[in-house]
Design goal:
With about 575 residues, the chain is α/β, with parallel strands linked by helices. It has 18 helices and 23 strands. The strands form 4 sheets. It has an 8-stranded parallel sheet. A 6-stranded mixed sheet has the order 3-2-7-21-22-23, with helices on one face. It is globular and about 85 Å long.
């Protein structure tokens, strides 16, 4: 109860200006002589804005705003620089990302040899029998575009169980298989998805595990983090978010431990970003228990949180990944050496059958919670939208703002359904930037016509929201999925990608106005933050950034190199370059 009261006190405090209720002593800050992009409904561009306490009290011309100046007012002459609302990242895994290199640095990897060198180096410093686990180095982002083989892992780490894991899929060595009890007689017994690939000649496991990582009996071999370590590293990451203009995030797979860290930062007055949380729910087990777990989230104290920290809904996993060959597609993937697919009818993996998904989504909606799921393939997207549509017939879903996380592969029908139901696709352009080469190589150019179809979504009246799926490392461009929003904006504008010539279906490129909305007000709406932030309008909280580049007028390629000069959260300067 103490925590809830502190949250509510913080929120209530936001409603009173610095000079107290019913009385104004003038603005604390006026920024003027700039290009203030309000992102209001008309996408108005003004010259100046004034902040009193934590709220915007005026937006307009230099003359209109400067006449409000008081003795205490700080004046900031922007000299033509652009001001935007604070940016959002609608899908991150911040706590895990902050801890990725706690035990040891992890180098960037572009080749299978880089991967093997890492395992070899770790085997040399660890004791025999200790586990070596490398996560989220996707094979599609390696030049050879393949998994390291069991034999290769055996050679570089013969006395250590070795796991190359990308989400639910993995490539492992002989010792990892043995210690996990995965052999030619292994069978899945927990009711979940997945299988161990077998050698067609011998029947022995090849070392490739599809949606089966949960069966690995991994034991940590790294040093254990204390609570202070987690707090300090997360705070350092959040400050790095501030340095690239991010003032609001969504924890797209929150646990109670994550929420406890955010709560501590809020109570200490150190939380430098707004956090909306989607609480993780497991979907294996009795459906009655799953429904009760959802109801518990509906009763969570932080459901009553405010603009700085709030639980908005739940998150689960509907299908596999496009980088691991397990996203659930409407048509067969096709035989692939890259993805190690030899079944011409294989469509990927759907983790939750529709008959189980329906009561899960219905219960979530009844609790007034937002539902979202990791949903990559167009078959999975269609399945989730079909369930949303059915629930909507008896319980309107618009007010709970259901989402689809990733929503990479879509169809014309899915786009129209998203718009009609006002379901929010949470899209990460980093996947297009990093993975187009592989996807075109496997699926062909035409099949990617509806890959991240951002322009079609805008045209249909849907509200896509931008993000990164930041999972590992601190550093906006060195992270496995870069969280630099300007790289993402450039990608959404150009549809250009690393190691790929040309553009991926340029008709799906956004305009500059749309791209800015994609990372500001659209995210705010998806995360229930739009009454407070997402645009620069009188009465809203003062989250804004100052840039060194005019995103509306500069050459397109200059956008990816744009730098944030200042970041303000709640009217306070939280970053200055």
């Amino acid at each position: 109860m103490r925590q809830v009261l502190m949250v509510l006190t913080t929120v209530t405090g936001m409603l009173v200006g610095a000079a107290g209720a019913g009385q104004s002593a003038g603005p604390d800050l006026i920024v003027f002589n700039g290009k203030v992009v309000t992102v209001d409904s008309a996408f108005s561009v003004r010259q100046a804005l004034a902040v009193e306490g934590n709220r915007i009290v005026a937006v307009g011309s230099n003359e209109e705003v400067l006449r409000l100046k008081a003795d205490k007012t700080e004046l900031l002459d922007l000299r033509g620089q652009m001001v935007l609302p604070g940016l959002f990242d609608s899908h991150v895994h911040a706590v895990g990302a902050a801890m990725t290199e706690f035990d040891h640095p992890i180098p960037g990897m572009e080749t299978v040899q880089d991967v093997l060198d890492y395992f070899k180096g770790r085997a040399e410093v660890l004791e025999d029998g200790q586990w070596i686990v490398l996560q989220q180095v996707f094979i599609t982002r390696l030049r050879e575009q393949r998994y390291p083989t069991k034999a290769e892992l055996d050679q570089v780490a013969p006395k250590n169980p070795a796991v190359f894991r990308t989400g639910p899929d993995a490539s492992v060595n002989t010792l990892a298989l043995k210690l996990s009890g995965i052999d030619r007689d292994f069978r899945v017994t927990d009711g979940g998805p997945g299988y161990a690939e077998e050698d067609p000649q011998t029947g022995e496991p090849t070392g490739i595990l599809r949606s089966l990582s949960r069966y690995l009996k991994i034991r940590s071999s790294g040093r254990q983090a204390a609570e202070k370590d987690r707090y300090d590293r997360l705070l350092a990451l959040f400050k790095d978010y501030s340095s690239v203009g991010i003032t609001g995030i969504c924890d797209g797979d929150a646990s109670q431990g994550n929420l406890d860290l955010y709560q501590q930062m809020l109570e200490k007055g150190e939380l430098p970003v707004r956090v909306s949380a989607q609480y993780h729910i497991d979907t294996i087990g009795p459906i009655e228990q799953i429904e009760e777990n959802i109801r518990k989230v509906g009763r969570h104290p932080l459901r009553q949180g405010g603009p700085m920290l709030r639980v908005i809904g739940i998150k689960t996993y509907l299908d596999g990944g496009m980088l691991t060959g397990s996203a659930y597609m409407s048509k067969p993937w096709g035989v692939s050496k890259t993805y190690a697919i030899d079944d011409p009818n294989y469509r990927g993996v759907l983790f939750i059958p529709r008959e189980r998904l329906l009561p899960i989504v219905r219960t979530t909606t009844e609790c007034g919670l937002q539902f979202t799921a990791h949903t990559v393939g167009d078959g999975a997207v269609a399945t989730l939208l079909d369930v949303y549509d059915e629930v909507n017939r008896t319980i309107p879903i618009r007010d709970v703002r259901h989402c689809i996380t990733h929503s990479n592969f879509m169809s014309p029908e899915s786009v129209q359904t998203m718009a009609r139901l006002q379901v929010f696709p949470l899209v990460q352009p980093a996947w297009l930037y990093l993975d187009t080469r592989t996807l075109v190589g496997h699926f062909g150019y035409e099949r990617l016509r509806w890959f991240q179809p951002l322009q079609s979504l805008f045209q249909a009246g849907a509200v896509p929201a931008g993000g990164s799926d930041h999972m590992q490392k601190v550093g906006s461009l060195r992270s496995n999925n870069p969280y630099d929003p300007f790289l993402a904006l450039w990608t959404a504008l150009t549809r250009r990608a690393r190691w790929y010539e040309g553009q991926l279906h340029p008709q799906q490129a956004l305009t500059r106005e749309q791209a800015i909305r994609f990372y500001t007000i659209n995210c705010a709406r998806a995360l229930f933050q739009d009454p407070y932030v997402g645009s620069l309008e009188k009465g809203k909280l003062a989250d804004f950034i100052v840039l060194d580049t005019d995103l509306l007028a500069c050459p397109a390629d200059a956008i990816r190199d744009a730098k944030v000069l200042r970041t303000y959260l709640d009217g306070k300067l939280v970053f200055q370059r």
